[in-house]
Design goal:
The chain has 2 domains: 153 residues, Quinone Oxidoreductase, Chain A, domain 1 (Alpha-Beta Complex), CATH 3.90.180.10; 152 residues, NAD(P)-binding Rossmann-like Domain (Rossmann fold, 3-Layer(aba) Sandwich). It is built from 9 helices and 15 strands. Strands 3, 4, 5, 6, 7, 14 and 15 form a 7-stranded mixed β-sheet that branches. A 6-stranded parallel β-sheet has the order 10-9-8-11-12-13, sandwiched between helices. The chain has a two-stranded antiparallel ribbon with strand order 1-2. Helix 2 crosses helix 3 and helix 5 crosses helix 6.
């Protein structure tokens, strides 16, 4: 077991878009495990949009990162030393002590995963919280019914790619996504099974959405907020459902962003707009995994991801994620 390992610390709270100077790469001691503890060498780190909110010192559903201390998040790694009989050395585990090379943890804080059955990064993506988020959104929060037309913003991202496939599995007749740039939109249709794609960089979102869904949409999964939510409200049919998952277009804003100016349409159309957090839906996890493992094996659940090598590049990967520089799940690979 090494005596030290690299960690990424929050150096300062960003104003607007994070910069590399807001992060610090620190050589830290690796704690010797006590009874019932293990040491994990992280192999894969998760990089997620929600982490931007944790960089602010505001109360939320997840505590903020502390300045001068290691950041954290989901990771998959290999146990290199164990003082816990139920988690022997060599076990691959999922845990929440990412953004570092090594983590000393209680055995109860990790979940063994089968990296022979699926790659380690998948447990941070389509077989992890990303996939469960998409499933909960379209299964429970804004349930997809047979024949529905579904619109998904941030469609080339981790949740968006999973959601496009899951919507189809749940009975959607047509699935439309939005992403930035012609290449992402080409891939949505040609590789990932979307029926149509909107390039939000071209503007006129509502016009583009109506062209792709002339009879309206029934379900909207919102990962972006702002003008996407406005366009969806205008295009939703009566009794349409909206799952409010995120608003990445606003995460770097230093001032409050005005809401959509057409919310009154939600009254006349009797729309349901419901926010949710994936941790509220852990009861669905086994149901989801039972299906998702099969979908992944047969190739109907996209396994696209964007991989960055080295913990020293984790901060840049996070900045790139917020700029839309990923297709699928953004992960950092540690080691060889």
């Amino acid at each position: 077991m090494p005596e030290t390992g690299l960690e990424v610390h929050l150096a300062s709270r960003p104003v607007g878009e994070p910069a590399l100077s807001d992060f610090a790469l620190v050589q830290a001691q690796v704690a010797v495990p006590g009874e019932g503890q293990i040491v994990v060498r992280n192999d894969w780190l998760s990089v997620d949009p929600y982490m931007r909110g944790r960089m602010n010192d505001v109360k939320s559903y997840v505590p903020p990162f502390k300045v001068g201390e290691v950041m954290d998040g989901a990771a998959v790694g290999t146990v290199v030393e164990s003082r816990a009989e139920n988690i022997p050395a060599g076990t691959a585990v999922l845990h929440q002590a990412g953004w570092r090379e090594y983590a000393t943890l209680k055995a109860s804080a990790v979940q063994p995963v089968d990296v022979d059955g699926a790659p380690g990064w998948a447990y941070l993506g389509v077989l992890g919280m990303t996939g469960l988020t998409a499933y909960a959104a379209l299964r429970v929060v804004a349930p997809v019914r047979e024949g529905d037309v579904v619109f998904i913003s941030g469609a080339a991202g981790a949740v968006g790619l999973a959601a496009g496939a899951i919507a189809r599995k749940l009975g959607a007749s047509r699935v439309i996504g939005s992403a930035g740039g012609p290449e992402k939109n080409r891939r949505l249709v040609e590789e990932f099974g979307y029926d149509g794609a909107i390039d939000y960089r071209e503007g006129a979102l509502e016009k583009q959405l109506r062209e792709l869904a002339p009879d309206g949409i029934d379900v909207y999964l919102d990962n972006v907020g702002g003008d996407h939510l406005r366009a969806a409200i205008s295009t939703l049919n009566n009794h349409g459902r909206v799952a409010l998952c995120g608003a990445i277009s606003q995460y770097n804003n230093s001032e409050p962003t005005p809401g959509p100016d057409n919310l009154m349409l939600a009254v006349g159309k009797r729309l349901t707009l419901r926010g949710f957090i994936v941790s509220d839906h852990f009861a669905l996890q086994e149901e989801f995994l039972d299906s998702a493992r099969g979908w992944l094996a047969e190739g109907s659940l996209p396994d696209a991801h964007t991989e960055v090598a080295g913990i020293e590049n984790a901060a840049q990967a996070f900045i790139d994620l917020l700029r839309g520089g990923n297709v699928g799940k953004m992960v950092v690979r540690l080691g060889s």
